[in-house]
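hi got a favour to ask and not much time before my train. below you get a single protein, a line of residues and a line of whole numbers that encode the local backbone shape. could you go over both lines and see whether the tokens make sense for that sequence. a few lines back from you is plenty, here it is:
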Amino acid sequence: MSRSDRSLRVLVTGGAGYIGSHIVRDLAAAGHTVTVYDNLYSGHRWAVLDAELVVADLGDRARLEAVLCGSGFDAVVHCAGHIWVGESVANPGKYYFNNAANAFRLFDLCAQYGIAHVVFSSTAAVYGQPGVALIDEAQPLAPINPYGASKLMAERALQDIAAASGIRFAILRYFNVAGADAAARIGEATPNNSHLIKVALETAAGRRLGMQVNGTDYPTPDGTCIRDYVHVDDLAAAHVQALAHLASGGDSLVANCGYGRGYSVREVLDAVERVTGIELPVGHGERRPGDPAILVADNRRICERLAWQPRYADLEQIVASAWRFEQALDRLRGGLAKSA
């Protein structure tokens, strides 16, 4: 049996979080043995489903080293990190310590313990404001906020450590992730959320009294920001395919993960109202610091290199799956979450 055909032992950092939990689900479904490493800062025990969970912080070197040493991991999928642009502007140190310094430690230990493959969750925020209709991977890397800068530092560290150690890696630059598991078992449950679709659905569900559009004077057709929304299930599939690519001897790669189609804030809110049948109470405010006007992916590389074929690119389909999860969230918090 070839290496690409056999089950791999995979450590997923941040695997109890929104994106990580979907990756864990798909890795397990593909026959891999998965261990989750998560401090539950924004993740949930119930989200790991049947995977093994180690509750620990990436900043705890001794604990991390104990988990990696002698465990026979073939790969690490690194999803753990802080993700809020606005918070990164207000508290940059938090982002540099967690997203950059902790990643440096993790990648260095992967090299030390002979872990062959690393898949890293990065972000389109590394591009800053490229000013092109479709962003490809050759665009200059010029982040405009500490979130993007911290992720870019981690990318560079992984590339340098890999060059010295022989690790092969996949860096996936996410665009705007949304949607949820089709069975509504897992989804976006991060507290104090600022993601547009999540905020809009919380407002529709009555969890918020209202919401605000941040900036209506951007140089876009309707004055609001345009983003490329990618369904979390398609994103999770990309990680499984990236790992299979590496395990079968494929070269390291850096690839965008998006659909190549952007929607404005107003278009998203219209879709939420159509799916839920609820008119949203929406106010208007100033631009958020660090928000570029347009971020849309050129996804040709990931489609060509990984044969990635998105299945859920319709905006209303993305919103509908997230709405089903939002309606199931009270049950999850009140039932399974009691074991937390």
Residues 92-112 form the longest helix (21 residues). The longest strand covers residues 117-123. Confidence is low (pLDDT under 50) at residues 335-340. The two ends are 39 Å apart (CA to CA).
